[in-house]
Fold this protein.
Amino acid sequence: MKQFSQLKARIREYAHERKGLKAIYEATGMSDGTLSNDSGLGEDNLMKFLHYAEDLNIRWFFTGIGDPINGAGITFGEGARLRLLEAKVAQLTQRMEQLDEELNDRALMELLKQKKAAKSKAS
């Protein structure tokens, strides 16, 4: 039996939990057999896999602790989307604060105009 590197063995286990090695090869562009030989795993192929496996439990992948599939936490793809949404919310919050200030300034100006008009009528 072949002895795979720990990361290749975990990728193979992940593939067994998911759609299989063929799906990984097709989605990532890794050469057929990359995960089936006993050589190491290059950084470029590792990055391709990590980009592909959005539901991968990273803690399990690097330590072997837990389950291969990230069932409870935020996945890579979700984390990126979450950061984008948080940035958008921050931008919108800032814009709302600006608009609120503008409305307050306009309301204050209108109030001052009304007081001035009332003073002019009283005089």
In short: The two ends are 103 Å apart (CA to CA). The mean pLDDT is 84. The longest helix spans residues 76-122.
